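On clarity, I found the account of how folds are encoded harder to follow than it need be. Since the whole study asks how a given chain folds, the encoding of that fold should be made plain. For illustration, here is how one protein appears when written out as sequence plus structure tokens:

:::
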Amino acid sequence: MPKLPILTAKEAESLLLKAGFILLRTKGSHRIYSKNDMRVVIPFHSGKDLHPKITKSVLNVTDDK
């Protein structure tokens, strides 16, 4: 199994927007995106990479085009 790429919040956001997700709302430093019945929460913390579980969920929902 290949290793997951290391994503920043901005990279994950661009992947979600390209896949047709829309920004629902922002609460603190977290942005919530939605498409149909799927929802993804991305934490925007400057200088930090996303946790591998968040990266995996972003990549899974963007592959389901």
